[in-house]
Specification:
This protein is low in regular secondary structure and about 80 residues long. The chain is about 5% helix and about 10% strand. It has 1 helix and 2 strands. It has a two-stranded antiparallel sheet with strand order 1-2. The chain starts with a strand and ends in a 13-residue tail after the last helix.
C-alpha cells in the first residue's frame, strides 16, 4: 500500500489516517514537484536540415518521385509521360 503526505515543520504529515501498527517501519521517498512537461520536438521540424547523401538513391529521385513511389512513367523519358 502506498500513502502520500507532506513534510511540514520537521514532520511527515500523512494525507490520510494510516492506521499502522505502532512501531511499523515505513519508507519515505521524496517525490519531485511536477514542473512543466518537457516539450517534445517534432522530427519534421528539422527534416529539411538533414540532407540525404546516399549514393544508392537515384540521382533524379526528387524530379521523378512519382515514378519511384507510384510506378508512373518518368516525366523526362523521351518526351513520354505527363508534363
Amino acid at each position: 500500500m502506498v500513502y502520500f503526505g507532506k513534510y511540514h515543520n520537521g514532520k511527515i504529515v500523512p494525507e490520510t489516517d494510516l492506521r499502522l501498527p505502532e512501531g511499523s517501519r515505513v519508507r519515505i521517498e521524496p517525490i519531485p514537484e511536477a514542473g512543466p512537461a518537457p516539450q517534445e520536438s517534432d522530427p519534421f521540424d528539422t527534416l529539411g536540415d538533414q540532407p540525404v547523401d546516399d549514393p544508392s538513391l537515384p540521382a533524379d529521385l526528387a524530379a521523378e518521385h512519382d515514378h519511384y513511389i507510384y510506378g508512373t512513367p518518368k516525366r523526362g523519358q523521351n518526351g513520354q509521360g505527363r508534363r
